[in-house]
Amino acid sequence: MVTVLEMPEITSPITVNQPATAPIPEVERGIIEIESVDFAYGTNKVLHDISLNIPPRSVTAFIGPSGCGKTTLLRCLNRMNDLIDGAGITRGSIKIEGLDINAPHLDVVDLRRRVGMVFQKSNPFPKSIYDNVAYGLRIAGITKRTLIDEAVEKSLRSAALWDEVKDRLHVSGYGLSGGQQQRLCIARALAVEPEIVLMDEPCSALDPIATAKVEELIRQLKEQYTIVIVTHNMQQAGRCSDVTAFFYLGRLIEFDRTTKIFSNPAQRQTEEYITGRFG
Amino acid sequence: MEGLADSRILIPARTKSRRTQAAIEQGIKAFFGGNALVAVIVLALITIFLFREGFGFFGQNLANLRLYRQAGLEYVDIIRATAAQHEALSRKLSEIRLRQVRVMEKRNAPLDEINAALASFDQFASAFSDTAENLHGLVSDLTEQASGLKERLFARAELLAQRSQLEQNGEHDAAAKIVLPEIDRKSAFDSLHQGAATFESVSAEMTAKLYNLLATAPPLPDPGGQKAFEQWKTQTREYLAGLPAASEKLRSWSPDTAIPWYRSISSFLFGREWVTASFWQDWYGIVPLLVGSVMVSLVALLIAVPLGVASAIYVSEVASRHEKRLIKPYIEFISAIPSVVLGFFGIAVVGQAVRAASQSSFFKWVSFFPISERLNIFTAGCLLALMAVPTIFTLAEDALRNVPRGFKEASYAMGANRLQTIARVIVPASLSGIVSAILLGLGRVIGETMVVLLCAGNRIAIPDFTQGLGTIFQPVHTMTGIIAQEMGEVVRGSTHYRALFMVGLVLFTITLGINYLAQKFVARFRMSIG
Q: I need a surface site. Which of A84, A251, B93, B479 has the fewest CB within 10 A?
């Protein structure tokens, strides 16, 4: 059974996909449309019939216990799973702005430029802060110094890091604190001006103060970007997401506005997970 | 009670007393500690032995150099050098002739015509070499005198050593029986010194003849040849102008001028000649061996670094799992081939093939082809490269694989393609690891013995660098090769024996330095990948 919710804050409506067998509803388009996706690592099937539409310019949180497939789904959105031998989508489709991202002719380089990613463990390159942020531009073939300078400043400002590093742009990114490194990675992802930013547990290795800064940043970024965030932290999902998807054992259990999920979940499993009774 | 007994079945109670337990632990500790200690002691002993045997060289070499002067060999060598210069000029004349002939052959001139055209030149050349006849005569006379004196001096020194040995042992009677032959050095040197006067008259005569000859030098038909000939003429004039300096050197030479102690070290480190078991004078200069080792290693690295690093990049970043399974063990398998087998292969296949290729018409445009030596720097370098590739490959692949996955993912997630990721992220991040792999490969190559002994050609001479790239097709001898070749034949404790130990020490220092540098780079690599 599927219901189309009224979502005053968000422009496009959201579907809640009931466990696997539910039919696909007629809904208005999200920026990302995932339709009955199955995913397997070799013979090990980890995602079962996932369907959901992610609304633009909002924060979508994927929650669920470890091993439920939320990171796998996130990595499907910019085809990072291509790097793993034998892994791939076995059924269904993922469309971004109406384009099937698994279509054979699709330029995966272009896709990844449009769908940026921030990883669980901050992973700045062993280069200077400036070179880290400029990396995406340089590989895209931009050589004009003034353009790169501008973009570096803009993305560092967007990542709320500019004031902290503007005097030491040319020292190694390793000299920064953990939280700063993670914001540097966000700035690096923003530098190529993606439309969508995927974040895979971006705060799991950070202390509470650094986490608060990154969360604040996420709230600001949704003005311009569509953000999908995987998190283990219920409070974090509650604090900074607009919509939340709850996964369990490779299936999408519930997808709804965050306020609804956290106050009045439709599924018993969701409620039990959120209240900490399992997971 | 029952419950307690049950639990004892699972974990048996301590049957050994605390004391036996402690003794066992002590024993284990002693066993491992003892092994480590033995390794350390053996290493220390080897090092000490190397140093002890090696450093004795300097004293003996100094005595060797002093004898060289005292017996007047040095004096004769001054004259010999001028004779050698004359011979070199003679050789250059024949080179010029050869070039002429080649030029004319290209124009399809018949042999008779060539000979006719060069007749006056040939006459000139033979007249030139005839001018040195008296000089050569003088050299061989003096050589006899000086080597006779050296033999007598050497025999006397031997007896002296024997006597002092006996006296040390307390056998004074036996010591007294040894009679030291008196050597009349003064008269010996007087007759030697007459050589200076003879040299002056000989060189004056030669100078006059040569100036006449130069004035009547015939022209050459080919402008290139003529140019070389003109060059030769200036060289000859310079040679003639240098003769008075030689005779001045002869006059001022004295057998009693002291040889400073550091000459013993500098003649080893900077000596350009390694001559042993010679009837005349032994020289222990490491430069030709060092240059040989370095040249062979450089060629080997030039081949092995691209091969090793590129295949490491391929295997760690590009290859499919199946390819990885095939390539990696295969390359590592090369290191299992015994170096002597590689040496056979080098002689029978590589050397032969390189020479055959150099003789083919396809390579006619290469100025230094065809090569005459089958065994040369290049042949040895190729095979050493084969030995270095597994080392470089394995270590570089390790370094590349240890680049955190996050770097790669971040790069791909930014829209980088595989080449960009490799060139801009993975290789820079693992660069110090790759450099240390290369250094360890160099260490492997420079210490390798069997292959160079078999394939480097073993000619003890500094290669002629004026040939440019052709230099690498000349035979050389190496530090490792000379030790392996000569150590079995030397008299224990002789200067030669100790000289070989010194070469070993130099080799040891070089490899130690290389390994130290490699470790530095590994440490940097660990830091750079966090």
A: A84
